[in-house]
Design goal:
Bound molecules: nicotinamide-adenine-dinucleotide, 2'deoxy-thymidine-5'-diphospho-alpha-D-glucose
Strand order of the largest sheet: 3-2-1-4-5-6-10
CATH topology of one domain: Rossmann fold
CATH superfamily of one domain: NAD(P)-binding Rossmann-like Domain
Distance between the termini: 48 Å
Number of helices: 13
Strand content: 15-25%
Largest sheet: 7 strands, parallel
């Protein structure tokens, strides 16, 4: 069985590919544009595998996608490719529309054409799985129930609006053409190989460098954290057992304020790598200007995926964050390489 994975050199995609290849019996073709967030080193350990093929390219390149589909005859397409950072979508939204909306549309359309030409048996097993986000549902107040699959879409940032547009297109391609689609809407991920522009790796690396820990606004915004390999397992469950045309919410049942997340990171670092001064890393916390339009709270109701597919997260935030911090402590070389000129430019622009 072959799966065409897009955006597999990023954070979640690379964890997914590694996990799937460990299972055996599956070949992966990974097409990735290698933007600033993509890094082929994330998969250097599987590069030599006969079950892994890498192609540098854009999901919006219909010609290339057609070629890959015809050549590799995948049983599934899993779309991880996206511009994924909310702050960048606020600073420069255009790339988000190009990849998350137009690119997704072209990938979806090429997949529909490929699927239409398959024989009945192959048609029946083919799936197009769109990896999406809980942010399409907008923001919750503190007492609101968690997002369920029937919540209406109320995206608030250019990023979440582009992901919502993509989800609508996926839905329409199922409804109109019968393409066998699946969509997952997941909460905040963390774990190894996450690019250090996102909250958790940014805070770990800043703390280790003795730099300020920039908490936006009052730090009381809430996110629902999920360890990345739990997300990868959920995607596999949806791929193998999900009902065609359905959407599945995925989350960690682990709501925390940003300030508590940063404090927990400081606690774990105090234990694993105490600062040379003996002072807790917490003294580095500083409050900075809030993100414009900042969503206050996300929380995900995972009843459907638990009941129908038998998936549940395995890691608690406590166990997952320890593993994550240990991974960053053990992988200084990876850190040095990703903190290239482009990364430094972003940090200078965003944090001054
Ligand atoms: P990431 O930014 O780490 O990786 C994205 C990957 O896509 C990179 O390798 C990049 O090079 C590639 N890419 C970008 N544009 C492309 C294009 N036009 N063609 C081909 N490849 C392209 O993102 P991530 O955190 O791994 O997220 C993966 C997916 O999961 C995204 O669709 C994101 O919206 C979704 N998601 C992420 C989270 C999270 O917390 N990180 C949570 C829920 C959903
Ligand atoms: O909810 C799922 C989404 O989670 C994914 O769809 C996105 O791709 C992913 O990037 C993530 O979006 P967030 O905006 O929630 O993640 P980020 O790590 O950028 O920020 C998490 C929270 O921390 C958010 O409330 C903003 C805050 N924050 C972030 C940074 C980078 C800070 O307070 N300071 C910071 O420096």
């Amino acid at each position: 069985m072959t799966i065409l994975v897009t955006g597999g050199s990023g954070f979640i995609g690379s964890n997914f590919i590694r996990n799937v290849l460990l299972l055996g019996n599956v070949s992966i073709v990974n097409i990735d544009k290698l933007t600033y967030a993509g890094n082929s080193e994330n998969l250097s350990d599987v590069e030599g595998s006969r079950s892994y093929t890498f192609v540098k390219g854009d999901i919006g390149d219909s010609g290339l996608i057609n070629e890959l589909l015809i050549k590799h005859k995948p049983r599934a397409v899993i779309n991880f490719a996206a511009e994924s950072h909310v702050d960048r979508s606020i600073a420069s939204p255009e790339d988000f529309i190009a990849t998350n909306v137009v690119g997704l549309f072209r990938l979806l359309n090429a997949s529909k054409d490929y699927w239409s030409d398959l024989g009945q048996k192959d048609k029946d097993v083919f799936r197009f799985l769109q990896v999406s986000t809980d942010e399409v549902y907008g923001s919750l107040d503190s007492l609101d129930p968690a997002f369920s699959e029937t919540n209406r879409f109320e995206p608030n940032s250019p990023y979440s609006a582009s992901k919502a547009a993509a989800d609508h297109l996926v839905r329409a391609y199922h409804h109109t053409y019968g393409l066998p689609t699946l969509t997952t809407n997941c909460s905040n991920n963390y774990g190894p190989f996450q690019f250090p522009e996102k909250l958790i790796p940014l805070m770990i690396l800043n703390a280790l460098d003795g730099k300020g820990l920039p908490v936006y606004g009052d730090g009381q915004q809430i996110r629902d954290w999920l360890y990345v390999t739990d997300h990868c397992d959920a995607i596999l469950s949806v791929l193998n057992k999900g009902l065609i045309g359905e959407t599945y919410n995925i989350g960690g049942e682990s709501e925390m304020t940003n300030l508590d997340v940063v404090r927990k990171i400081c606690d774990v670092l105090d234990e694993l790598r105490p600062s040379s001064s003996g002072e807790s890393y917490e003294h580095l916390i500083e409050y900075v200007t809030d993100r414009p339009g900042h969503d206050r709270r996300y929380a995900v109701d995972i009843t459907k995926v638990k009941k129908e597919l038998g998936w549940a997260p395995r890691q608690s935030f406590g166990s997952g964050i320890k593993k994550t911090i240990q991974w960053y402590l053990d992988n200084q070389e990876w850190i040095d390489r990703v903190r290239s000129g482009a990364y430094r430019e972003w940090v200078a622009k965003q944090y001054g």
